[in-house]
Amino acid sequence: IRVCDGENGTEAIVEEQFVDRLKTSDSYLVIPSDKAGGVYKRMSALSFRASPREILRAAGKELGADLVVMGYLYCYRERKGYSYSVEQPASVAFSIHLIRVSDGAIVWNGLFDETQSSLMENVFHASSFFKGGGKWLTAEELSRQGVDELLKTFPRME
Hints:
This protein is α+β, with helices and mostly antiparallel strands. Helices cover 37% and strands 23% of the residues. The strands form two sheets. A three-stranded antiparallel beta sheet has the order 1-4-5, with helices on both faces. Strands 2-3 form a two-stranded antiparallel ribbon. Helix 2 (33-46) crosses helix 3 (52-63).
């Protein structure tokens, strides 16, 4: 996975897109991010030597959750230019993992890593270019496309 410089707070954009989309499923009851985040912060402060997965399990148990979601944002670079012409295209890379609280097993994971390219640069990505409306996307639009793509394989998404 490639890493690029991004602005602080951009992980909240991808998180919000993912959570909003997950809330549309009847298969999951989503615990509000602020509540879950607060429990995670408290648990991590109490457990200096625990791994992130162990902390997530503990937080999940306290919240009464069966599953917890963990994600990493590797790249969130905004396009330089306009929807019709760019100097530098948007680029987004993130991974999302679904962890079972009872045993800490990763039951699903997904990876999205894309830098938009023009039709002339890569004709094999024509469907992706036209999925974005045949224009240069912003990083937010590209990440939303990535969330939608990953959730197609997310367990029990309807």
